[in-house]
Amino acid sequence: MKVLWLFAHPDPRSLNGALKTAGLHTLEAHGHQHRVSDLYAMKWNPLVDAADYDHDPTDRLLVGDASERAYSAGRLSPDIAAEQRKLAWADTLVVQFPLWWYGMPAILKGWFDRVFVKGFAFGHTDPTTGRPQRYGDGPLTGKRALVVVTAGARAATLGPRGVNGDLNDLLFPLQHGTLWYTGMSVAPPLLIPGADRTTPDAYAAATARLRHRLLTLPTTDPLPFRHQNTGDYDDDLLLHPHLTPHPHRPLGPLHHPTPTPSPHPTRPSPPKFPHAPPPDRRHQQQPDTGKSPLCRTQLTHHLNLTP
Question: Which parts of the sequence are annotated with region: Disordered (predicted)?
Answer without folding.
Answer: 236-307
